[in-house]
Amino acid sequence: MITIKEWLNVVARLKAFFAYLFLIFCIFHHAHILDRNSVHSLLSKVAMIIGCVVSAGAFMAGNCNPVELLLLHYLGAALSFVFVCLYMTILTSLTSKCMLTGFERVLYPLRTISSFFQISATILYGILFIQEDYFYKHISAVFEWFLCVNLELYELSYSVEFYFFSSSMLSVLLAKKEEEKPLIMA
């Protein structure tokens, strides 16, 4: 029989693994944007940085036991929940601007609705979480579950884009660009 402490260690490892997968997702999506539509590279780079903050926050929230490291757990959760809303908003904006697969007419409305639900649920989660009544704490836990499921469904919509992913897209991240020398007319 597995003890609660062993179960918590397994859950912490799973959360760390999912935070790592989210980081890989952010890097791969940035490489995809750079390869297919480099005009929006700055917005994609901002999204990648925000995604790294989300991943670090999720890693911190998942690996800091709330009984022993309550402040770090809450700080990581706050970072990941707030910044994932910003991350989803930027990626939804990139969906409308970049034609990567041709399925953007279907994906953009779905991602817009998912982003709206994520932002609304995060606000409601924050309001309900600070309440002291047990009923509100329970409802906030339901909203936390909804936030996680909604984010996973949002990421699942990118499976269409990653179908068109190639290994050459990663080489875009590793290759150095030749510096453009300004043309001086004297």
Automatic annotation (TrEMBL):
Domain CWH43-like N-terminal: residue ranges: 19-163
Compartments, record wording: Endomembrane system
A single GO cellular-component term on record: endomembrane system
Membrane topology: Multi-pass membrane protein
UniProt KW keywords: Membrane, Transmembrane, Transmembrane helix
Superkingdom of origin: Eukaryota
Cross-referenced InterPro entries: CWH43_N, DRAM/TMEM150_Autophagy_Mod
Membrane spanning residue stretches: 12-30, 42-62, 74-94, 106-130
Pfam family, one: Frag1
GO biological process, one term: protein localization to plasma membrane
Family of the protein in this entry: Belongs to the DRAM/TMEM150 family.
Identification of the protein by name: Transmembrane protein 150A
Native source organism of the sequence: Anabarilius grahami
